[in-house]
Amino acid sequence: MPGIQTSNGKAFEYAVLTNFFEVLTNEGFNVTLNPSPAFRTAENKFNSLSHEVKLTMRRAALASIETIRGFEPNLKYGDEEIRLSILEDNKGTAGDVSDIVIEKLSLNWRIGISCKHNHAALKHSRLSPTIDFGKSWLGYSCSDNYWNVVRPQFNYFSSLISDLPKDRRPTWSSIAATPQEKAELIYIPILNAFSDELIRLADLYPDVPSKLVEYLLGRKDFYKVIANEREKRTTIQAFNIHDSLSQNYGPHKASPRALSLSRKLPTKIFDISIKPNGNTIKVTMDEGWALSLRLHNASSKIEPSLKFDIQLIGSPSSLTSISTYW
Fold first, then answer.
1. Which of 123, 137, 159, 236 gets the highest tally of CB atoms within 10 A of its CB?
2. 171 pairs with which residues across the strands?
3. Closest CA to 15 of 110, 115, 102
């Protein structure tokens, strides 16, 4: 499933990008495509799909174009070159969660688009015996108390696969037969340590809640395009945290504007709780922000790390969100 989801996600990036290219070109704009390796990968993923799936993706992508153009006068006016690119995956680690970038280099103007196909997850960050999530996510190092809990856990997993080739490694189910056993043995100790450390850091550093949101949403503003094929609906959300979206083009103003979130970042963590399934925590903050972090093994085979599936389940009422049905 994750492999198919990733492949379809890449294909949807291609569908969004090429729809922008066609619409803008047909209206006489000077548009160029960046033929990067990331673009070629997305193109190959799209071309491998059936005709019916391609058509559905293109409809879902097309439904986002005019909404975003309404937010961005630079996509409706001017004769400057508009450059369309698909970013490499590793850009997310540098604070940019966009999959697509549209820019006018001559004006130093840029917007990012994050493409989601049948899901709306944020990041898939890992925990391991060497990843200091406090430092990499928030800029503040984790304490010895955190490492004293998680390192023995991950070292135990490592001992089970020591010197074994990947194809001979045991599965997670071999050490935890039931979901409850898996939660108690694998997830809950690490989630408790993670939660305690996040609370500790938030108590020490007042900017931890805002840094957490900025880490998950990226440090560059962007539009999120979410395709829901079952409901035949495309949702466009504007994450305008740094007020860089909806810039005017000369006298031309955006209509509507992507509302600012710069004064809506959280300042407090109200609660962190583990859900009944034992592998998910919910983080509730002020200004309406809430996160769900599901810890899981990315592979059926044991490995010395675990991965978060992170969802935004609560956001400020001022978050711009528009849905279009097709």
1. 236
2. 301
3. 115
Residue 36: phi and psi, rounded to 5, are -75, 165
How many Cα atoms are found within 13 Å in the side-chain-facing hemisphere of 75? 25
pLDDT for 91 equals 55
C-alpha separations of 120 from 32, 225, 269 in Å? 29, 9, 23
The greatest distance separating any two alpha carbons of the chain, rounded to the nearest whole angstrom, comes to 66
* pLDDT given for residue 299 in this prediction: 87
pLDDT given at position 1: 46
Assign 3-class secondary structure to 237-292.
Answer: EEECCCCCCCCCECCECCCCCCCCCCCCCCCCEEEEEECCCCCEEEEEEHHHCEEE
> What HEC string does the chain produce?
CHHHHHHHHHHHHHHHHHHHHHHHHHCCCCEEECCCHHHHHHHHHHHCCCHHHHHHHHHHHHHHHHHHHHHCHHHCCCCCCEEEEECCHHHHHHCCCCCEEEEEHHHCEEEEEEEEECCCCCCCCEECCCCCHHHHHHCCCCCHHHHHHHHHHHHHHHHHCCCCCHHHCCEHHHCCCCHHHHHHHHHHHHHHHHHHHHHHHHHHCCCHHHHHHHHHHCCCCEEEEEEECCCCEEEEEEECCCCCCCCCECCECCCCCCCCCCCCCCCCEEEEEECCCCCEEEEEEHHHCEEEEEEECCCCECCCCEEEEEEEEECCCCCEEEEEEC
The overall average pLDDT reported for the chain is 94
Q: How far apart are CA 158 and CA 299, in angstroms?
A: 14
